[in-house]
Design a protein that fits this description.
This is Outer membrane lipoprotein BamD-like domain-containing protein. It is built from three helices and no strands. It is mostly helical.
């Protein structure tokens, strides 16, 4: 994103929200994670990582995998 000496309040805020989203994703709170990732997608549409996680949360909510690991296995291209 930038050099550490160039971090401003906007970047700190973005990273704080990302950390919350990722924490909820890893703990299996996909609805909360999805909420945070959607906000990031709206604010930073050029950052594809946020939409990737948003889509994963949506898929996990729909499939409810039960026993879940935060590791992701690609099943298609």
């Amino acid at each position: 994103m930038c050099q550490s000496d160039q971090v401003n309040s906007q970047i700190k805020n973005e990273l704080g929200i990302y950390e919350l989203a990722l924490e909820n994703y890893r703990s299996g709170s996909w609805d909360v994670a999805r909420f945070y990732f959607w906000g990031l997608v709206q604010a930073y549409p050029e950052r594809k990582l946020y939409s990737l996680y948003f889509d994963r949360c949506t898929e996990l909510l729909l499939t409810n995998p039960g026993c879940w690991s935060p590791e992701f296995v690609h099943t298609s291209k």
